[in-house]
Amino acid sequence: MAVVKELLRTESDGTLSFGDYTLASKTKLEDFEFQGNLYKVKTFAEITKLEKNGMFVYESVPGTAVENFKAEDGTVSFKVSAPKDVQFTLELEADSEYVVYMDGVNMGDMKTNLSGKLSVSAEMDEGKTVEVKIEKK
What we know:
The structure is a single chain. The chain is mostly beta strands. It has a single domain (8-136), classed as Chondroitinase Ac, Chain A, domain 3, CATH 2.60.220. It is built from no helices and 13 strands. Strand 10 and strand 11 form a beta hairpin. The radius of gyration is 14 Å and the shape is globular. This is Endosialidase.
């Protein structure tokens, strides 16, 4: 998977791609309009963060490249790559249960905290892409 050199872009299938973990220093892009919302991305080797209308959406440590990010109707799906193991956090519905799938394998049920955050760890290798799908139960 290639990093997203534009930092944030719209894909032809109506999804978003963002993040460049190869950058040495924090780089950001603000006021990116997509489907009537304004997005902001901050990304570099140590962290990638996406906000929508000023609200938290996605964060990873270390930085990642995310392709085909789609969040709707209780489901979030995307492809993620990073040079090493990663932890990403998503803003979902508070105090709810979700099923987490990675590369089509059910990784189990997870519950969001009272603020709606769900954190997931993934084993990564340079050049490897993991397909993530998170569905509300």
